[in-house]
Fold:
Amino acid sequence: MKTGLTLLQLSFCLSLIVVVSLSMGMRPETCDQYECPTYEMAEAGNGYEIRVYKSAVWMSTGPIPAPSMTEASKTGFQRLFRYIQGDNKSKTKMNMTAPVITQTTPGKSVYTVSFYLPKKNQQNPPLADDLHVQSWKPTYVAIRQFSGYVTDAISKKEAAALMDSLNNTKWIVHIEQSKGKSPEYLVAGYSPPFQTTARVNEILVPFTM
Structure:
């Protein structure tokens, strides 16, 4: 009984650490295993981070009509996974990276899913007929981390929470001015599909200064 109680307490403490870490906005542990885009931290605030991402190259799907972001993310991830396994014109295999991001289209049930290309493949990305290259210039991004599996309702809730946390900050005016020029928000998934605990996701709102 004593041992069982100790294990229960340990499990609770570990869960608490994960929740606190996500609320503080820590670098995802996945980036210790997989290559991730590089950035500099401009500010870590209450419920948000402001990062300055360096130039990056992504491979993206075309628009995916789907009844939900969850379904579109699955469809897009499956295609991109085949791509890095060699289903491309040059039959090039690539290492897995993180995150995989899903872009929503305001007012439409259409989504785009993107895979961060390893640096060694960014100069000459392997091409595929049904995928296209997206190049990011250095850009400011507002971030909110959260855990669990992503659903449409959860992503909207977290995006709203991010915007609430940015109100009355010096960043909000630049974010408002960027509306219509940048995606409303992106959802970044860092955890593999089979991981059931301590999952890490982020809401990203790109903006210009």
In short: The first helix runs from residue 2 to 24.
